[in-house]
Amino acid sequence: MTWSKDELGRIAATDDLHIAPLRDDRVTLGTPTWIWSVAADGELYVRGYNGQKSRWHQAAIRQKAGRITAAGMTRDVAFEAVDGPINDRIDDAYRAKYAASPYLAPMISARARAATVRILAKT
Known about the structure:
- This protein is an alpha+beta fold and 123 residues long.
- It has five helices and seven strands; from the N terminus they run αββββαββαααβ.
- The protein has a seven-stranded antiparallel β-sheet, with helices on both faces.
- Strand 3 and strand 4 (43-47) form a beta hairpin.
- InterPro entries: UCP028498.
- It comes from Mesorhizobium calcicola.
- This is DUF2255 family protein.
């Protein structure tokens, strides 16, 4: 399912997304991790600062489900690995949202791009 325009706008405008993929039992949520998020082409994306070695990233890709909290909302979500040309637009979204941050360069590096995840809203 896609995000409503309002929800996506609220999440994209905030800097407080916490991600909690399911644990291996597929029931228990992992510890929420604060992470940068961006919207591109009407979808919500996150990246692993430490690339594919990020613990939350490994769980998200393995379990494909979890929960996020952002902009005063808590939503059950699905996770999907992303690759390809969309990464250029995601880079642009990171540049626009986090231009003043000293952490921007690592978030648009090849390592972080390899750990790009689309977050899909569940009904």
